[in-house]
Amino acid sequence: MLALYGFLIIAILLFLVLTKRTSVHFALVIVPVVIALIAGFGAGELGEFMGEGMSSIAMTGIMITFAILFFGIMFDAGLFDPLIKGVIKYAKGDPVKIALGTAIIAMASHLDGSGSSTFLITISALLPVYKALKMSPLTLAVIAALSAGTMNLVPWGGPTIRAATALDVDVLELYGPLIPVQIIGLISVLIAAFWLGRQERKRLGVIETAASANAEEDLFTDEKNSENQELKRPKLLIPNFLLTVGVIVVLIMEIVPLAVPFVIGVPLALMINYRKVAMQQDRIEAHARGAIYTSSVIFSAGIFTGILSGTGMIESMANISASAIPNGLGPALPIILAYLSMPLSLLFDPDSFYFGVLPVLSATAETFGVQPETMGRAALLGQMTVGFSVSPLTGSTFLLIGLAGVDLGDLQKKAIPLGFGITAVMATVAWIIGVL
């Protein structure tokens, strides 16, 4: 009977989230509470389950909050402006170099894990160059989508945070073995960008025009009298770079608890770049919306997973699911999931998949001796990572096509085969090196 209640919770969650009938928070919190009460669990028991669930992901929620603030401040201060200018200047009208530069800029822009900011920076910076050289905006959109998607595996990115929360595992333990796999994925993106650039070069040739030669200067002219320009701190490039590298290194080395590097990094970044308290407050407020929304979803998910785990629903669902899977197929579940993970982005948004589907898949695989971390890594190779920027279930996809002025169908037609190929390459590498 517990399994029936568990499947009912997941079915209602998927329905509410995918149809946008309620907020994600309502689906993650109210639905399991109501069903658990109907199942006969008391308020005291549920309170204990919810408390345990939230406690288990507290450090993760704090980390994502301060990571968004930290990288937002660095973008405001112009840490990545020299990279953008340098790539444009180096390209000199060669579509291949511009395509590769687009990928590098999008990868760097996605360090904050936000698809919206990545596309705003990348498309806004490079669309005038593409138009000046008569390159296809669709090529720009595809490269930006693939680059942002593959970078979305970072440990403070939405899918990785969700997977760690749903499976109740340490985020760095989940992500660490994927570092070489992600590197291979990023190299695959560069190869795809090179191929797309070659197509543009065959069509257009290398174009030396006044527009392309002065593109780097033109791109930043409009900002000179804007509020954004007042936030730039070009003279503090080196301190900002060193601080960013330090934060990431300390995070990966696990010298201190998970959230601490960003918690320390945010006030240091504010003090280095904006000495006035009023400006510091403005920068926090400017990025607070994204930080609060993401962290609130994570804590809501803590309640969701706490209830499903504490009541025993996940275990019951896993036992029923495992009984329906042939014994020979069970150990192969992570490999199957890895290769299917990218297309699953077209069917499930990140919340419904990672909080609703993945825990059941993981518990089912665990009955065959597969660790939860393995299933989490398999999912992360494509589900709302490589696949997020072509999925109609994410708002950033529509921001991308709106900024680039391309059709969603055209983007999907060109990007999905490449994205599936990149995921397949990463899945194969992960399989070979024993990550899956």
Helix-strand sequence: HHHHHHHHHHHHHHHHHHHHHHH
Overall mean pLDDT stands at: 84
- Overall morphology: globular
Distance between the termini: 33 Å
Major pleated sheet:
none
Radius of gyration: 22 Å
Number of domains: 1
| Unreliable residue stretches | none
Strand content: under 5%
Please report the number of helical segments. Answer: 23
Which percent range fits the helix content? Answer: over 70%
SSE topology:
Blueprint: H1 2-18, H2 24-38, H3 43-56, H4 58-76, H5 81-91, H6 95-109, H7 115-132, H8 137-151, H9 158-167, H10 171-175, H11 179-204, H12 210-213, H13 215-221, H14 227-231, H15 237-253, H16 260-273, H17 277-310, H18 313-323, H19 333-340, H20 350-366, H21 372-380, H22 395-404, H23 408-432
Helix pairs in contact: 1-2, 1-18, 1-20, 2-17, 3-17, 4-16, 4-17, 5-6, 6-7, 6-8, 6-11, 7-8, 7-22, 8-11, 8-22, 8-23, 9-17, 9-20, 9-21, 11-23, 15-16, 18-20, 19-21, 20-21
